[in-house]
Amino acid sequence: PALKYSIMLSGVTQVVMTKVDILSVLPQIEACTHYKYDDVTTKKLPYDLENTNLEVIYKQFEGWQCDLSDMKYFEELPAVLRNYIHFVEQYLGCDITILSTGPERNQLVHRKITESLIA
């Protein structure tokens, strides 16, 4: 929700997703999708983040647990990672056009978006 709010405020049209190689060691990935605040569930970022009644709600995804460092094309990425990326794009309402798959400058996957992936 915090990133979605930032995208809305800033007018962002494309996102770069970094460090997907670091996430490769995890058996599952969690993405915050909602907050529960005083028994109310919302997708909006609460103004009072210090409230002790704030609960973060996550959606869980299967991890991809493989080496991504030599991958140059989106189609080469594991299906579970592509599914995660598609979820994030749909949730944010913004295309992810570049992914970093390692620490080197050339370890990038560029996606040519001919028309928005977001319906």
Name the descriptors.
119 residues; alpha+beta; 3-stranded mixed beta sheet; 3-stranded antiparallel beta sheet; 2 helices; 19% helix; 29% strand
Walkthrough of the structure:
The chain has 119 residues and is α+β, with helices and mostly antiparallel strands. Helices cover 19% and strands 29% of the residues. The chain has helices at residues 2-10, 79-92, and strands at residues 14-17, 28-37, 40-42, 54-62, 95-100, 108-110. It has a three-stranded mixed β-sheet, covered by helices on one side. Strands 3-2-4 form a three-stranded antiparallel β-sheet. The mean pLDDT is 89.
- The geometry reads as globular
Major sheet size, sense and barrel closure? 3 strands, mixed
Which radius of gyration do the C-alpha atoms yield?
16 Å
Cα distance spanning the termini:
19 Å
Q: Strands across the major sheet, in which order?
A: 1-5-6
Itemize the secondary structure elements and their pairings:
Blueprint lengths: L1 H9 L3 E4 L10 E10 L2 E3 L11 E9 L16 H14 L2 E6 L7 E3 L9
Summarize the structure.
The protein has 119 residues and is of the alpha+beta class. The protein contains 2 helices and 6 strands, in the order H-E-E-E-E-H-E-E.
